[in-house]
Amino acid sequence: MDLENQARIKQLAEQYGNKSLIVVLGAADPDSSELVAETVTTGDPSYAGPLTEVQLGLAVYHILEPEVKAYIPPEVYEEQVALMELALDAEGIATATKKIRDNASAGG
Amino acid sequence: MMRAVVKGAASILAHTPDLVLLGSKPTREIPRFDGLYEECMAHLRSHEEAVAYPPNQAFIGNIRPDRLADVGKPWYEHPMEGAAREGPYGEIMPEDEFYGLMKAADVFDLIWLEEGFLSRVAAKLQSHPLLGDLEGLEGGKAISEIKGKLDRQEALPLNLRGELVGCVCRAHEEDEDLRAEVILEGLAVKASAFLALRHLLARVSPTDPRDVDYLLDFGEEAIGDRYQRGGGNMAKAVGEMAGCLNASGVDVKAFCCAPIHAVTCGAALVQAGIFQKIALVGGGSLAKLGMKFQFHIKKDMPILEDTLGAIAILVGEDDGVSPVIRTDAIGMHRIGAGSSAREVYEEVVVKPLDKLGKRIIDIDKYATEFHNPEITVSAGRPDTPLINYRALGALAVLRGEIGRGELDDFVRKHGMPGFSPTQGHIPSAIPFMGHARDMIVGGEIENAMFVGKGSLFLARMTNLSDGVSVILERNPALKGGD
Amino acid sequence: MFAGKNVVAFGERDGVQGPAIAKCLAAAGANVVFTVTECVV
């Protein structure tokens, strides 16, 4: 994740509180999703940025997860997301994101 | 109404492994980690390896991009047998010659090359079939002078396989916008763009340089000084080096979308009768060398981002053979249009197709983004070409043109594997231009749509993205095959 | 799940971009505090 964005997320987590901020991703594939999800939960795995070894433990979801889709009005989702839902590996992305989220909350 | 046509396109590569260390990411990362410099050096490829690398052979036109699907993976472990340095659209130049080319491009004595090295390189370039007339290859320096310049931190080193052979000097003591890094970037663009233009005019679409009457540069470099950081007109600098004495030029800036903007501008100017032969040129991005180098090292792969790419396209008056540019069906992402993927594709792809009464599946080949997936996927990043084609196919599904189950077939039929270096504007649709021109003239395909996209938001001036498309179509005057 | 919550719309150029995620979350009643699109190639 871009260093500027890492710093920004860190600042927002401090401002709103870790428990009150949700991050929703739009990453293009399972690997990218895992990488970003890890960065905002257990820290920057590439040891490059402000979130290196900083465990924000933020709640992280992907816009293509069924549990997120369920809350979006269908006509908005259709217009904004449906195309990429069909084009991308939605299932793989959802599984990867959920795995990181579950690991992070299991870790406490 | 006279239509503009694409008369030819040249695509060249300059293999510059030592310049990888001067790329943006390596420059920042190497000082941070002990041993990273040595690991980087140990994972750089030889010129022979770069030449035989299948995607590079597709880039210069020795194989069609589609053929890469049949090559064993990983590609870097399946070098092409008998691979040639030269191809129908260009060549893969080795680093020493490229340093010579930069010296020839330098008219302010900012590139210093060691005397012995310079005379060897000058001799090599003299015997190059297209570069025998190069000037500016005299004035070698003693190595002590070069070292002195580096010690005083007034220059950056130019190495060949780790050995010092020269340096790039800053152009001003105080002006940050004329520091050595910026000069090197500019000269790398100028030299590589010149090489593409030379191939275009001398071989691909033989044209006297004095018959070119305008140049458009579509690169993402910024050349200028402290008061006008992006002043520009690289187009004119490249045109001068190539002998286009009767032309002027201008730079087209739109991030990675610029090449297709340049095609539409060029076509419009020719169609309007203002100019007759316009050369579109874009040089390589030094900043993008080695972007994913740490991932490649970690996977014990060669560092694949070791080449500068450059492309030159000739747009001219209808010659009764070359594919026509459908200026009556330009796709463009308007400022007020929505920015979801669907809205962007509707604007940029569907609207122009509607104008021609065509469906998505009526375009034989789409040229979208051609980033070599071997470079990006190994770094945990997406296969960008594949995602582009899947998005187009998904749109065809949503419009009822094909069934969900036909998405994979759509990708195979209307798309192709990525094969371009990850050099920003270079992989943006135009690596397919030379191929498309020949495939259309040869009757393999009827048409091709080139779709450029740009991440304008990276400059922090707007949150907008950009998108432009242009359709190339078989010349109606052409009967049957070639 | 999102109604009244503070959310970050973290998009990717090749995937779903930030503004698209933001529109969805806003429509779900969320307070979008930051929208960004990363360019990773």
How does this model look, in words?
The complex is a heterotrimer of chains A (108), B (482) and C (41). Chain A is mainly alpha-helical and 108 residues long. Chain A has 6 helices and 2 strands; from the N terminus they run αβαβαααα. Chain B has 482 residues and is an alpha/beta fold. The mean pLDDT of chain B is 96. Chain C is built from 1 helix and 2 strands; from the N terminus they run βαβ. Chain C has one helix at 18-27, and strands at 6-12, 31-38. At the A-C interface, helix 1, strand 1, helix 2 and helix 4 of A face strand 1, helix 1 and strand 2 of C.
Beta-strand proportion of chain A: 5-15%
Which oligomerization state do the chains in this entry correspond to? heterotrimer
What distance lies between the first and last C-alpha atoms of chain B, to the nearest angstrom? 24 Å
Number of domains of chain A: 1
Largest sheet of chain B: 7 strands, mixed
Backbone structural class of chain B: alpha/beta
Task: Kindly give the count of domains of chain B.
Answer: 1
Cα Rg of chain B: 22 Å
Q: SS-based structural class of chain A?
A: mainly alpha
Range of helix content of chain A: 55-70%
Number of strands of chain B: 15
Name the overall outline of chain A.
globular
CATH topology (fold) name of chain B:
Peroxisomal Thiolase, Chain A, domain 1
Helix content of chain B: 25-40%
Q: Overall mean pLDDT score of chain A? A: 90
**How many β-strands of chain A, per DSSP?**
2
Q: Tell me the distance between the termini of chain A.
A: 23 Å
- Spell the H/E element sequence of chain A: HEHEHHHH
Strand order of the largest sheet of chain A: 1-2
- Count the helices of chain B. How many? 16
